[in-house]
């Protein structure tokens, strides 16, 4: 049954992405910025809704009050746990401000989805050219935050299997310190329902827990990221204890 649901969901994504992407691409000839962003976010709402209705993937969000103090003039760097594609779909739906994702440029080659994303205010980087990638993140990150966008970066860099922990890289905290904005750690248990590299989605509840903003002033990137890592990983173990309880530390830290 889960396999059939997952097939239907894949068809749902394919059928809905094409018309929305075409509208966004044509619209981008005349309009850019926030208006175009929310057109694309409409498809993400369809994707999250489809996961719930077709596959039984529900979600619950805690900690939204931690974002209530920010307005359009306030920059922030969101640093979430990354376990599946679900959170890449969900965060633009959940967040009250446009998001500028930092992602590998290869995603731009995905038909329709990537083509539309290329027209948005996003930060796509070449991971093989690290110095150039960092300059682009710093320059465009500050620019987009000045325009009212929030920057979102996955500190582990890639998806991690349920119950595991990748290496937390300091790009997000470096950007926050450079721009003089706080970071917000976020825990997400999406691998419960949407395991890494798995086609079949399982019904269940995804927990999203948003932590309190952490000021970046006077901090070092590595020190600040260790605080982010400690909060996220402790929160992951609280939200999904069965995924971590019996694993040795070495296995937990394996990506």
- CATH architectural type: 3-Layer(aba) Sandwich
What top-tier CATH class fits best? Answer: Alpha Beta
Q: What is the CATH topology assignment?
A: Glycerol-3-phosphate (1)-acyltransferase
Main β-sheet description: 7 strands, mixed
User: How many alpha or pi helices?
Assistant: 9
Structure description:
This protein is of the alpha/beta class. It has one domain (2-252): Glycerol-3-phosphate (1)-acyltransferase (3-Layer(aba) Sandwich), CATH 3.40.1130. Helices cover 45% and strands 14% of the residues. It has 9 helices and 7 strands. The protein has a 7-stranded mixed beta sheet with strand order 1-7-6-2-5-3-4, with helices on both faces. Helix 4 (113-117) links the parallel strand 3 (99-104) and strand 4. Helix 2 (34-55) packs across helix 3 (86-94), helix 5 (130-146) packs across helix 6 and helix 6 (171-179) crosses helix 7 (221-239). The longest helix has 26 residues, at 2-27. It is globular, with a radius of gyration of 18 Å.
